[in-house]
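Methods — Computational structure assignment.
A single polypeptide chain was analysed. Its primary sequence is given first, followed by the predicted tertiary structure written as structure tokens.
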Amino acid sequence: MKKQTKKIIQLVERFSRKKVAVWGDFILDEFIYGNTRRISREAPVLILSYKNREYKLGGAGNALLNLKALEAQPYPVGIVGQDDAGDKILQILHQHGLSTDYIIRDKNYRTPIKTRILAGEQTAQKQQILRIDKETRVPNSRDIEIQLQNYLKELRTHVRAFLISDYNYLTVKENVFKRILNLYKNRQIPVILDSRYRLLNFKGITISTPNEPEVENCLQIKLNDDEKTLNKAGRTLLKKTEGTAVLITRGSKGMVLYEKRKPAFEIPIHGTKDIVDVTGAGDTVASILSLALASGSGFKEASLLSNVGANRVVMKKGPATLSLLELKDSLKT
């Protein structure tokens, strides 16, 4: 085990400066904070005394921040509207030293915003009491498709991995995907798919990273902690995605890796099962997997490493990231 740990630590040390293209849906996460002291006389609702708000990157933006925290060089490819939310996303990207060269601004698109209202007593930790989603879909536009295709063609000569982070806002155009996939595969660049609702729409990827609810939704089944059903689902996904591997994440039950012509590789959870918050854990898995494959890792090592990183992240509140040092430290425990 010590020999394996040493090998994986050496793999992590190759993460620094690795270039990764991240194509996906960019969402603005808005957090409004306040104190609650009384109930309204107008209706049985809490009165929120407003204190402050903050903005963060959501959707594919969280994968970007994970990659950046691991000292990689991610290149975001996506679309924002010509609106205040789009301005804020570009501003946050600049603040984190991330490129905006491959971000399209479209006047017919409204940037998605997820507003979370958190409240509580003044001295207590704030809890989310409401979420408001402002959602639209990226228009079907020939101009947008051409621009996305040109950006992705250009990036294939620079990057070592290609991560697709699809939240179903249709930034990831299926026609574009079909036209550029082989351009990456011909250069032996791993293509990692993290898709919430369209897992079967992008065939031929290197590896996909669905969680159990996404597997159930995709195949219209119930897993119910049944190992036989899970293994059948993993093999079915491997066949239907026409991929090389599928990594199913299972929360406190760990992960299972499926590869062609190989037995299932079960990975128990690393460390404690007392999870604080699973928000963004899937982005961490996809990001670490991308960097490991970009650094020459096989699927097993990459999956083991992503399992360690995800377990560290779920011990944090909200869509958190972890640093390269934290990842190394977690491998030693």
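Note: The CA atoms of residues 193 and 208 lie 5 Å apart.
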